[in-house]
């Protein structure tokens, strides 16, 4: 069986923010499921590590949380993006795209282009 | 900035930390529930669904811990954990905790008590600006064994212009003066000072002014500066006091200033702290002797060094100055006299006399503290055997050793700090009681306070002691043999050999320390007892001394008691009336020098013997009390040769003197002193009327009495008759069945019936005077004895604990021996031998230590050698007996062990 690559350091936060941005308020398990689905089960997310991250993001003011009822009427804590979080997401998205573009350019360069 | 923000979040997490952790737990549980449901929908059995959910989540505990480390300050958190745990452990064994805390309270409390005294006396700087610059200047003639000989006016001028000092002040020894004009004539302490006196101290008046430092008026200037105390007491704190008249010894002075509250005159020594009036004087001009280089004023000299010059450097320059003066005036400074001038830090001269006693006490109390610490460390180790299992289990579960050490150390520190705090609290509560034990002669007595500084000291000492004495037990306690300990189900661990050895070393140390203390206490006790029992050579029983002082106005012609003949009229009448008082059998009069052991500054006069060439500077000095003829009989000082004074020895008849045997031995060795003639150079009569040499003939020799110091048997004395030499500061001696409550009033009315201007004050029995003269010794002796008893008790407890522990450890072995037929007495002997072995080791070490210590305190001993064999032997015996007694109880228990039950229970 092929080893699944771990989530790149620091990208989990970005995934969480983007998930909340797209789906709106969501509880922890929903976020975890969503990340798994989107990655097509290619990424191994240790689901447990998500919760400390959520707490950290909340401390930093990027997300806020409140108790609510889930679809099947369980009590669950729902997270939503705050204004600061949205701004952070935009900034990090820009950074990420820039980085990705640079990396892509490196991949596309061939030897004859450099002479 | 970001770091700071994270730190604050962490800090706030610390406060609400529990809830964050709680929430994390909740969410994880919730997550598991979701996942399990999902898994079940996928068709798993409930158990499998839960298992898979948990696997998918990862290690929940690790996540929590990781989150925790991320979000809080682990060090403080752990500290809280440890503290809580420590409190629980302490509460779980209240007996142990109580003993440990009480032991530490005793150790820290006693140390803190002595520290508070030392803090007030030795550590407090003098209350003057830049006090470090203040020095006392003392000149000596070591060649003729004369010390502190005072200063002459030319020498003072030399010092002032030497460039070493900012200024140099000269003041009198401090004397007394009669204040009249108030309801009751009062006697005050006053001091003649040069006008720059206060500017040397850099203290200004709170009201009015001090003297003009540049005023060089010869003789007296009729200005007075008074103390805050006198201002409040006599003048009701009158704000218009400046310019008011102050009648002192019938002279009229004007008050020019009031010193601030709390200004204490520490001109030179602690004896002079209660000065209430300062009079300005140029030390040249009447009534002071003419300013000759060799005519020294009996004075105290205090100078302020130039800034930036150290005492050592100043002393060097001063030595150079002295040498050049000696060359310049060879006649005034003969080589044999070897004139020297010394600088002494003023603070040192104030507390120097008690430093040794205090340092000794601090040493003693330090030993008690160490013994307390050793004892607690010992108790901790004893408890370690009971906790071995707990620690082993925790280590087996993966606790790190450093973590465990830290936790145990927290526990120990808490114990020590609680003890220290308890000690301080007791001290704080009992301070009034304790202060009463402190001898009144201690300088800065009023500064002794149990306050914040002392609390800081107590806490610091406890923390330091806890760290030092807690590390080793903590380390040893965590060094358990895991497998061994865990295998011994329920039997409790048989402690590691290291622990057992450490305990024995601790007990030996403890015994040695207490032996040192006991030897010190024993030697002090013997010194004190010898002093207490020493025959003083006079009979203080049923004798009271009441003081009265005659005024001495500045102009001798104004003095109604100028000559002995004038004074005799008063004195004879005082004596006649005193004898009529109820209970009085005998009465006599003497000056302050004649009050045995009751004066701190004997004024000594140069003794010039006829036929022996003596330059003034080289003359030996001698105490010269002035007494009435009845004095010797009243005090029971027997005559050995010649005669005493009689009523025919008057001013108009040849001068006579009575000396004691010490004077005879010292100044006329192997000769008959009777008929020898002497001159006491600074005889006041001669100053006023220097026409011809007034020779004094020695007519009698009395036996030595310890009138100067109980510790010194033979101080030369030359007595003169009050009917030939007027004296101002008088003591009336009364012997009989006296009522101490009323006698002062009765005597006062008799004296004031003759002269209403005379103050009559301070009635004390000679027995009180005697006992007061021993106060500082008694204090150190009592304290050290108390510490020694404490140390002995602690050492006894320590050896008891250790032997009990050893016995406990050997229970199985003893039971087997008994089962195999060993005699019970053999078991008893075996255990006792161990106790004895420890005691012997401790005593051996202790004796060696005590030899060293006792030589350091040789200066405090009297009549007993620092190596006094009876003391050493007695103390060693007592210690050994206590050690054996302490071992006896566990030994008895070992002997009575029932082999069957013991072996069964194992």
What does this protein look like?
- The complex is a heterodimer of chains A (115) and B (906).
- With 115 residues, chain A is of the alpha+beta class.
- Helix content of chain A is 59%, strand content 14%.
- Chain A has helices spanning 11-23, 28-38, 47-60, 83-108, 111-114, and strands at residues 26-27, 63-69, 75-81.
- In chain A, helix 1 (11-23) crosses helix 2 (28-38) and helix 1 (11-23) packs across helix 4 (83-108).
- The model of chain A has no long low-confidence stretch (mean pLDDT 80).
- Chain B is α+β, with helices and mostly antiparallel strands and 906 residues long.
- Chain B contains 26 helices and 23 strands.
- The model of chain B is unreliable at 268-272, 489-493 and 683-691 (pLDDT under 50).
- Chain B is elongated, with a radius of gyration of 38 Å.
- In chain B, a hairpin with a 5-residue loop joins strand 3 (175-180) and strand 4.
- In chain B, 52% of the residues lie in helices and 15% in strands.
- The A-B interface holds A 27-29, 32, 46-49, 51-52, 54-56, 59, 70, 72, 74-77 and B 9, 20, 23-24, 26-28, 30-31, 33-35, 37, 56-60, 63, 66-67, 70-71.
Cα(first) to Cα(last) distance of chain B is: 64 Å
- What is the helix tally of chain B? 26
Give the tally of β-strands of chain B: 23
Class by SSE composition of chain A = alpha+beta
Number of strands of chain A: 3
How big a fraction of the residues of chain A is strand? 5-15%
Largest sheet of chain B: 8 strands, mixed
Estimated structural class of chain B: alpha+beta
Strand content of chain B: 5-15%
- Could you tell me the radius of gyration of chain B in angstroms? 38 Å
Shape of chain A: elongated
Report strand order across the widest sheet of chain A: 1-3-2
Mean pLDDT across all residues of chain A, rounded? 80
List low-pLDDT spans of chain A.
none
Uncertain stretches of chain B: 268-272, 489-493, 683-691
Helix content of chain B: 40-55%
Oligomer: heterodimer
Q: What fraction, in percent, of the residue positions of chain A are helical?
A: 55-70%
